[in-house]
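Put briefly, the fold is written as integer tokens. The lines below illustrate.
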Amino acid sequence: MIKPILYKITSTILLLALAIVGTEFFIYSSDEVKGEDENFQDKFNEDYRIYSLTIPTDLTFCGEPVPLHDQDVYERLDRELLVNTYWQSNSLLYHKRANKWFPVIEPILKEKGIPDDFKYLALVESGLMNVVSPAGASGFWQMLEKTAQGYGLEVNSEVDERYNVVKATEAACHYLQDAYDIYGNWTLAAASYNMGMTGVQKQLDRQDVNQYYDLLLNDETSRYVFRILAAKELHEHPTKYGFHYRLKDLYSPHNTYSVKLDTAVKDLAEFAVKNKVNYKILKIFNPWLRQSYLTNKSRKQYEIRLPKAGYHDFSSTELPNSLDSSSSTVDTLQLEENHE
């Protein structure tokens, strides 16, 4: 009888001891984790900062003043600056691509008499990529097929000049000039690029006002010009908004030469090899070629752009600040798989 009793007493004592030790260990572990969390939170609060922005007091679009004294206008600009400043990866890519493509777009705007600020319209429309919208708008300037054809661009299953940045920029210039001729105002011309000339005019008449900043519009068009203004502000004053980069971090413009073509091409891959490049490079520089062949029944003369020597050896190529007079290319990253 004594042994079982001693056994029970011993077992109970051991269980109590283990419980006490376990409780102390748990309390110790909890305190340790709590302390670690507090230290981590303190470190986070010490190192991480999100700042409100200093909104510019003097801002223009195409030389037209932005009425920042208007509380609504101020808040709308603040929104777009915050969105673009703190969407750092996207805005940094804007800086990189702008260095590559603005030297192509700027001379065309100047030649056509369109204010230089409209390069930022292309930037916010597409990010300077050959994207396609849900509505079917395509290319850097996001033109719909009928609009593009109305301004002289060829758009069919084999050739789509909305993807030719030079021709598309020229077409966009003609549209913007037409809009300006109607409104006498570049800001309204920019808004019409998003909403259409008829849509903008309808709202001007309906609301009995004569400038964009006084219009009550749908959310997309209401934000549209402010997105352009934010892109302009961040591009012209990058360090003010925390963007720091070296020249070598920016994407470099391409130096190219042209090959005239007025015949059919049965196999563009073979054509590329004959011109000392491959099919990928041919499509990178000419994404307006939408198939792997070109029938060209009308025998129209096309200009094929190809890279000059040194394109393949990126490490040994100096980064130019601008293109020479014969240079123009189109980005490749957005080639659709069914057209490659």
About this structure: The two ends are 91 Å apart (CA to CA). The CA atoms of residues 159 and 289 lie 5 Å apart.
